[in-house]
Amino acid sequence: LIEVLKSKIHRIKVTDGNLDYIGSLTLDIELMEKGVLLGRKNLGINVDNGERLETYVIKGERGKGDVIVNGPATFKIDKGDIIIINSYAQIDNESAHKFKPKLLIFD
Fold first, then answer.
1. Which residues 6+ apart lie within 8 Å of 82 measured at CB?
2. Which residue, of 29, 77, 95, 106, has the greatest Cβ tally within 10 A?
3. d(Cα 101, Cα 18) in Å, to the nearest integer?
4. Is the pTM of this model over 0.85?
5. Residues 32-81: tens digit of each pLDDT
6. Which class for 58: exposed (0-12), middle (13-18), buried (19 or more C-beta within 10 A)?
7. Beta carbons of 26 and 14 less than 8 angstroms apart
8. H or E stretch including 24?
């Protein structure tokens, strides 16, 4: 098996942060339905400062547009920062040649 990019939410703005939460990234359910799975490890990349972190995603409220950074990740990503969220999958090498990731690009 090899790891490939499964989906990407590109250049979305962080709507809030909560240091006192136990951790993770809260996403609006509508964003999650674009290819980010509940509880799955994701890579968050801060476009504003280059910081990267691995975390998991939890459900936010549908339709609110929430992108909330929780716990210690708030030291790397601030409210208002632009981030990229990459989600990966492991697939066999033959399938990888045909696979196309889902991209959700914000401007």
1. 11, 12, 13, 14, 46, 47, 48
2. 77
3. 30
4. yes
5. 998 888 888 999 999 999 999 999 999 999 999 999 999 999 999 999 99
6. middle
7. no
8. strand 24-28
